[in-house]
Input
Amino acid sequence: MTTILGLFFIFFARIADVSIGTLRILLLVRGMRLKAAMIGFCEVCIYMIALSIVLGGGQLSMLELVFYAGGFAAGNYIGSMLEEKLLSGYALVEVIAESSPLIAERVESLREAGYGTTVLQGEGKYGKRMILKIVCERKKINIVLDMVKGLGFIYISDVKSVTGGFFANKGK
Output
């Protein structure tokens, strides 16, 4: 029969592994696959220890635990890589920057490189701003980020689908 201490351990272990699992999923969504894999390793270790207490009275070898958790972590890493390779997707890179000749130069460079770039006028706390909106394939985010580095505030969001517009490989 399980002791009250064992029951509390199981209860709090499940809170820990489910909470860590939520964090792991968020990291995967953000493309941080190595961190997600490491957190997944810890997550499944906690889960397996709690499960071994529930089902087997705590009988679990360290080697089995490491291999099971390692497989789970590697599966997260590889699954994230497969998702990136197999599922085409788009991202919206937005840049909010002070209006300057450098902005115009970078916009022209983006367009010449085949990235449709929309420029909007905005106003921030300290005056007029230019807002660049660049929709690109997710796998090309780093290229776009290199091109807009140092311009201002940059954020990236996922795009569920696109239609129309200009894309280098689609044409107009």
